[in-house]
Structure formats: C-alpha cells, structure tokens
Write a structure and sequence with these properties.
The protein has 155 residues and is mainly α. It is 50% helix and 10% strand. It folds into two domains: 31 residues, no CATH class; 89 residues, no CATH class.
C-alpha cells in the first residue's frame, strides 16, 4: 500500500513500513537516496562513474570520484567500495574520513576504513609516572646496525 501525505510517501506491506520518502514538488526534480543505489552499485560498479546519486553527495565525493576514476583504470571499483561503507557509517562521518584520505593523497577504501577505525578507538588513559622514572630518557636505537647485519648475512 502506498500512502501519500503532503510531505511524504510511505510504502507499507502488511503493517510493515518498507520505505518513507520526502515528497518532491519541483518540476523535473528527483530526490535520490544513496541507500537504494548501493546494491546496484555493488553489482555494477562501473555505474558509479556517472551516477547522479554519487554526484549529489557533495564536493568531497566529487573530488574522490574524479581522482579515482581519472587516475586509475579500476577507480570506479574503489569508489564503490568506499560508498558501500555507508552501510556501516553515517554519511557525515564517512565524508570526513574521505576528506582526510584525500588530504593524505590515498583515497582508497582501505585507508578510509582505517581512518574510521582509528577515530572510533578509545585512547588509553594516561598513567601517573613516579618521580624516579620521570627523568629517565630512553635513547633511540641506531637502526643502521641492522642494515650492517643484513649486509654481512647476505655475503
């Protein structure tokens, strides 16, 4: 059953709400929901190159689309992997992570996922340090020693 009110359209089946959409009154306008396109994009990732739903997501997503699809032959697949993260993360959080990945020059699904995981991790509490240990300084190891050992071992 479809119920249309002045501001929304509801689709129901046996007392279960399947979908609720805001009504669009503008001529020639369309309201696109990314969640509806994710299964199709997962099946046909090449469609992400020119999908209107991807273009409406904002400038960060447009930049990622241009970078990924312009520089890599499989960039559209990587873009879809990032888009599919919408299933697990809210749009604004995912957009912030994508923006950070673009700033790092690594807009890949792996990097975006790692940024999201890093943001969700809690930092351990600071432990008090006794006065006896507070002045103790540990010198950094000279890693050149390991290179010398590797050279000797390979000869």
């Amino acid at each position: 059953m479809i119920k249309a009110t002045w501001n929304q359209v509801r689709i129901e089946s046996a007392q279960e709400v399947i979908a609720v959409h805001q009504r669009c009154y503008g001529r020639g306008q369309a309201i696109l929901e990314l969640e509806h396109y994710l299964p199709v994009l997962a099946q046909k990732p090449r469609a992400a190159k020119n999908a209107a739903v991807v273009r409406q997501l904002g400038s960060v997503w447009e930049e990622a689309r241009q970078v990924l699809c312009g520089q890599r032959t499989d960039g559209y697949r990587e873009l879809v992997k990032i888009l599919l993260l919408h299933r697990s993360y809210p749009h604004h959080v995912l957009t912030a992570a994508l923006k950070e990945a673009l700033a790092l020059g690594r807009p890949t699904a792996t990097v975006v996922r790692q940024i999201l995981l890093n943001a969700s991790c809690k930092k351990p509490p600071q432990l008090p340090v006794s006065e006896a240990l507070a002045g103790y300084v540990v010198e950094a190891a000279d890693l050149a020693r390991y290179d010398a050992l590797l050279k000797e071992a390979s000869q």
